[in-house]
Amino acid sequence: MAHRNSVVHVAVGVVRDAAGRILIAQRAQHAHQGGLWEFPGGKLEPGEPVLQALVRELREEVGIRVAAAEPLIKIHHDYGDRRVLLDVWNVNSFSGEARPCEGQAMQWVNAGQLSDFAFPAANLPIIAAARLPAYYAILEGPDAESIMTNCQRIIDNGVKLLQFRAKALAASDKQNVLEQVLQQCRQHAVEVLVNADLDLDISQAQGLHLSSRALLRLDRRPAGMRWVAASCHNAVELQHALAIGADFAVLAPVMPTASHPDTPPLGWQRFSELLESANLPVFALGGLGRQDLALAQTAGAQGIAGISAFLV
Ligand SMILES: Nc1nc2c([nH]c(=O)n2[C@@H]2O[C@H](COP(=O)(O)OP(=O)(O)OP(=O)(O)O)[C@@H](O)[C@H]2O)c(=O)[nH]1
Ligand SMILES: [Mg+2]
């Protein structure tokens, strides 16, 4: 039994097969959070590095040999009877065929099906992280034509999640341009979140993106949206995003940017410290490109967000 005040450090794998399906298993009835579904993994042994624990647990529980893993998210959770740090890794590269080595129920499911299963409370942000891609494009442009060109470029770059921001557009054009963007994105299975400050009809979009000002005015998550995201710059805003039940946040600026020359950048060190207690997926924004993805993931990020990052 873990000491009440100590934190149980757990290595957890989001294991994906070639078709993109994710491996889940059912916890034994007698175990902590028994009967609920989980991502395979387990407790670190004393002094054991987390990646080593991940490899060992996935071999012991589901019989696979992990070839490579990338950090996905870290979650701190207090169950009352136990505090855990879930150290979650993406495992896209492994050998062997997964099998339930401990007699547990086991299934491969699509990311979209994860919410149909009962998981422990700490898993909510892990499921969001597993469903989210590594890139989040912010769509801007001085006029309708450049917005549509930028939209196509973002799609051509393989991005699957986009924020319609378009602040510079004439108010009378915004709804019309949004509808064109939604149509173009639908054809390529790209999900669109609309910036809440634009005050548009978003019934055909997949989500709402809150500016930090809009975030701080809310005390609960807007209803009826598949995705709710928030722009954050500090710990208070990140905590508020978590408190209202946002699915993910964007934290900026990590590096100096031309668009906000007077805002001091956070740098990776501070960015990483802020993520320690964020408990939700966070994209890194500000002066970054797609080539910064590995760096961002190592700092704890879900991935990279950007305006110009996806136009080249
Ligand atoms: N593996 C795993 N553990 C999770 C998840 N979510 C979650 O809250 N936990 C918690 O993290 C802890 C991990 O414990 P575990 O039971 O997997 O540990 P283990 O494999 O070393 O098991 P053992 O105690 O039987 O040796 C438990 O308190 C469990 O409730 C999850 O998705 N996967
Ligand atoms: Mg386990």
Automatic annotation (TrEMBL):
The keyword Transcription regulation does not apply. This is 8-oxo-dGTP diphosphatase. It comes from Methylomonas koyamae. Mg(2+) binds at residues 41, 61. GO terms for molecular function: 8-oxo-7,8-dihydrodeoxyguanosine triphosphate pyrophosphatase activity; 8-oxo-7,8-dihydroguanosine triphosphate pyrophosphatase activity; 8-oxo-dGDP phosphatase activity; 8-oxo-GDP phosphatase activity; metal ion binding. Residues 1-134 form the Nudix hydrolase domain. One of its GO terms (biological process) is DNA replication. 8-oxo-dGTP binds at residues 27, 32, 38-41, 123. CDD domains: NUDIX_MutT_NudA_like (cd03425), TMP_TenI (cd00564). The keyword Transmembrane does not apply. It catalyses: 8-oxo-dGTP + H2O = 8-oxo-dGMP + diphosphate + H(+); 8-oxo-GTP + H2O = 8-oxo-GMP + diphosphate + H(+).
